[in-house]
């Protein structure tokens, strides 16, 4: 033994794109960066901006460098970006998902200790198709007073989202995948999803397949959410059911999400830009922090991910330092300070 310290090769920092977003986006993004730093994980953030804030200067809400950065780094953390209602530019979020072909939107709906969820032990994962359906943007005014939106459903997209859901269930040790549809009314479009689901299910005999109509699913979620496991569904149903799910476990402030494609992944909370509380320093950053945990697992930083997971569980189980959406009085910074301290101890 020479007594020298063991040689450890320098750890490479991860190059990750950061899109802070608008509204509460920059506030929750900043909090998330601080919590990640507290784990010691090495990340070189490449910050790029999109949305209304850049539109005037750049002439577009989604400048090409945003797409290029995510393509180059293959991983991004994204804050919410607002979309005008009923007029104005197309959703930057939808455009980004389509441009990068981020076809699977994975949203774990899980209760946290101390938050009094509607049902103990709620643990649902919604796998939402992310590139088509009514979000394809195929809308037109046929004539004044008559508007048409086209619901686009393809066999290709149905196959890959169903495959993704079953493979996810297998990888995560889940038992059942339930397809949520409305094929009793939309016999061709939702019927196609159902037909594909049944075929894909046959290739995954270890996972139990189940089927439910979307309205019945909404009812089941509010009556007995803990009976649901993995859900696979179309874009619009997935969007609505994930906000419903968030409401069951403590609200939009805590539910994370990941947009996964074959070439890149973008991690973002389920919530939007929350203009009603933007700039007040009271937003709950937990949803984006939990999205960052999914990101850490994705890039293989299991230790850092586990530290934050443990800190979140311990914090919510034992501390009253909470933001207003969860009935507390803490500011975003106060909550983040407390969570960073918990991460340091985890
Ligand atoms: P929202 O999710 O922004 O807000 C709904 C309610 O939840 C508001 O009362 C808000 O204050 C509260 N809330 C949301 N996140 C919170 C947090 N982290 N902490 C504390 N309270 C929180 O939904 P809304 O108002 O319908 O949409 C606002 C904008 O966000 C719209 O322009 C919409 O298009 C956009 N949006 C963007 C998304 C994205 O970037 N992925 C997703 C959903 C909406």
What does this structure look like?
Helices cover 41% and strands 18% of the residues. Strand 11 (258-260) and strand 12 form a beta hairpin. With 346 residues, it is α/β, with parallel strands linked by helices. It contains eleven helices and twelve strands. It has two domains: 13-106 and 253-346, Isopropylmalate Dehydrogenase (3-Layer(aba) Sandwich), CATH 3.40.718.10; 118-249, Isopropylmalate Dehydrogenase, CATH 3.40.718.10. The strands form two sheets. Strands 2-1-3-12-11-4-5-10-8-9 form a ten-stranded mixed sheet, with helices on both faces. The chain binds 1,4-dihydronicotinamide adenine dinucleotide. 1,4-dihydronicotinamide adenine dinucleotide binds next to loops.
Write the layout of secondary structure elements.
Elements: E1 14-19, H1 25-39, E2 43-47, H2 52-58, H3 64-73, E3 75-78, H4 92-99, E4 104-110, E5 123-129, E6 139-143, E7 146-149, H5 155-171, E8 176-181, H6 189-202, E9 208-213, H7 214-224, E10 230-233, H8 235-249, E11 258-260, E12 265-268, H9 286-298, H10 302-318, H11 332-345
Parallel strand pairs: 1-2, 1-3, 3-12, 5-10, 8-9, 8-10
Antiparallel strand pairs: 4-5, 4-11, 6-7, 11-12
The chain binds 1,4-dihydronicotinamide adenine dinucleotide.
